[in-house]
Amino acid sequence: MAQATLIQAYNEKHDPKIETIEEITVENSSMSGTQMMTLVKGYASGGISSYETYYSDYLESGYSLTESNLLAMNKGSQGVMAQLPTSVDESLKEMGQMNTYGIIVGVVAFGIAALLIPMVYTILLAKGLVSEKVETGSLAFTLSTPTTRASFVFTQACYLIFSEVVMALSLLAASLLTREIGILAGSADLSTSLPIKDLCLYALGNFMVAFAVSGINFLASCHFNKTAEAIGTGGGLTIFFFICSILGLFATKAIPGTIRITMMSIFNYMTIDSLFDPLAVMSQDYATFFFKLMFLLLIAIFTYVLGGLRFRKKDLPL
Length: 318
Fold this sequence. Notes:
Order of helices and strands: HHHHHHHHHHHHH
Number of helices: 13
């Protein structure tokens, strides 16, 4: 059984394929097939020996057959775990201590999945607020009235921000409702593993990313007179940030150490999405969480102000 598993695992990653365990050598693997089997036999014999010893001891102590079997299996497994390499042991302990609800909801849902729809909506809305009106010429009718450039661009910015706030509040309300339904359905551990405070902070972080992204797209819409250019720049940056956040996820502590790819952390430095740190919420490091959000706020303010100034001063093809 062990030999077949090792051969199958080797063949999935290497060519040419092998048929016997002896064909695995130190030249094409971290250890030879013989060494692997020796290690497996050592773990197996150690676990069996520990189990038999504990089983006899518990029977002599007056435990029933079932109780002795369960207790001996537990102790024997602990003995095997103790023989594992330190890195493997630490990784397994890390997986056991992970906040599964926090990772699924905070990192995956709010940090990635729930960002996609607001991003797409923001890209399409932002281009329609300014650049599309300039390109189609409809802005000429607006500015021919007593409406000034400043009041027009301010109104458009407020509308975009208001839309982001409505989406964020809707997401938070849906999340809170889903949490309560889960608790009523029998998942009582949601009340401790996913407290309302954490859920609100996840929603805040999600909104701040969307807010910063909306500022970038608003700036692009104010700068360019062509819709395609506005979407290509603002939307291109937005999608680039999103892809980098997905790739960078594999280097974070949300991924178990056994499959974590540390070198991919470079992508977290190439996206503003990483400034939303759900792991800081899970570890109750609120200072770090709000410190990073401050940069998202600064990005949003800077891009909105710069977009407004650019629109007021640029030449319009009216």
